[in-house]
Specification:
mainly beta, 14-stranded antiparallel beta barrel, two-stranded antiparallel sheet
Length: 333
């Protein structure tokens, strides 16, 4: 469809305030950690790759769609390398990011501490000709000229992991990038902000390796709790809530993994303007020779539920066990 009502206009009409994070979200984030933490590179101790496709808010014109491809591997004993490519589209805007990760891993207690660095390049682009709302090019200077920029960035992360526990903290892009500026007055129109990620998870055997319980948590914040702690009286708030994702899952007989999660924001529970986001169900199947396939479905809990059919995610991964003759159990993280 060439002419669409952009998603951000629909959001404007159904809510008094727009709160959004710029980085793409994933229900199966625990299997796609290289996308936001370079310290994850090489942590599986063998070459591993995963491809993920997410279609958010099915049936809504201009809704986000995201594709990622991640490959990472250990190199010698302490070094890990990773490559991640992601493509994200929402409404008439799109971005493609390619990143290379380097991780240095040091034994610590029963696990390893991995310190990661990331170099990336982003292409951000717009196609305002597809807008169909009162001729936006004539009524708003913001839509007068299309944008197509390339920008480098750097990220960092730390990741501790053992066989049954992990915890990580990362900032995938440290440099704030201006996405558009007004040509005469140089007034900033848009900017890519820093996103901070905290993750942790456990694997708890209940019936040996035939039944394993795995809870996990993701916290994502723009400008480090910018909206949660900001006051509109002294500065312009970032406008994005501090999001959390609580997930519980069970692994059956080392071959079927099923889970459920709940996504919301801290602001929802302290009276600030925000809302509960979604409840999610997912499953992953371990097939022969390192192949795995995963599916996820999100039930929208915001006011957008009246305008879409939820969100869908599919993941395909492959682990190359070159240096291990027999894998006793799958890696949990």
């Amino acid at each position: 469809m060439k002419k669409i009502i952009p998603l951000f206009l629909l959001l404007f009409f159904i809510s008094n305030n727009i709160h959004a994070q710029q980085d793409a979200m994933f229900t199966k984030y625990m299997f796609n950690s290289l996308n936001f933490n370079p310290g994850y590179a090489g942590s599986k101790e063998y070459l591993s790759m995963v491809a993920l496709y997410r279609d958010q808010w099915l049936g809504l014109d201009g809704a986000p769609t995201t594709q990622t491809l991640s490959i990472h591997t250990p190199f010698k004993e302490r070094v890990g390398f990773g490559l991640n490519i992601s493509n994200d589209k929402i409404g008439v805007t799109g971005s493609t990011v390619g990143s290379l990760s380097y991780a240095y891993r040091v034994p610590f207690g029963k696990g390893k501490v991995s310190i990661g660095l990331q170099a990336s390049f982003m292409n951000y682009r717009t196609d305002f000709a597809k807008l169909n709302y009162k001729d936006p090019r004539a009524n708003d200077l913001s839509f007068r000229d299309d944008v197509n920029i390339w920008a480098p960035n750097f990220g960092a992360g730390v990741y501790y992991y053992s066989n049954k526990f992990y915890v990580g903290f990362s900032v995938p892009h440290l440099i704030k990038t201006d996405l558009r500026e007004e040509s005469v007055s140089s007034t900033r129109w848009a900017q890519l902000y820093r996103h901070f990620y905290f993750t942790t998870g456990l694997a708890i055997p209940i019936r040996g390796e035939s039944l394993v319980f795995k809870p996990s948590l993701l916290i994502k914040s723009v400008e480090l709790f910018g909206d949660f702690s900001s006051s509109s009286n002294n500065r312009l708030p970032v406008g994005a809530p501090t999001e959390f994702d609580i997930d519980i899952s069970f692994l059956f007989y080392q071959s079927l993994w099923v889970g459920a999660s709940f996504r919301s924001s801290f602001e929802t529970f302290i009276g600030k303007t925000s809302s509960v986001d979604s409840a999610d169900l997912w499953a992953m199947f371990y097939l022969n020779k390192g192949l795995r396939v995963g599916l996820a479905y999100d039930f929208t809990l915001t006011k957008l539920r009246n305008h879409n059919n939820g969100s869908f995610e599919i993941m395909v991964g492959y682990d190359f066990h070159f240096q291990q003759k027999h894998i006793v159990t799958p890696r949990y993280f």
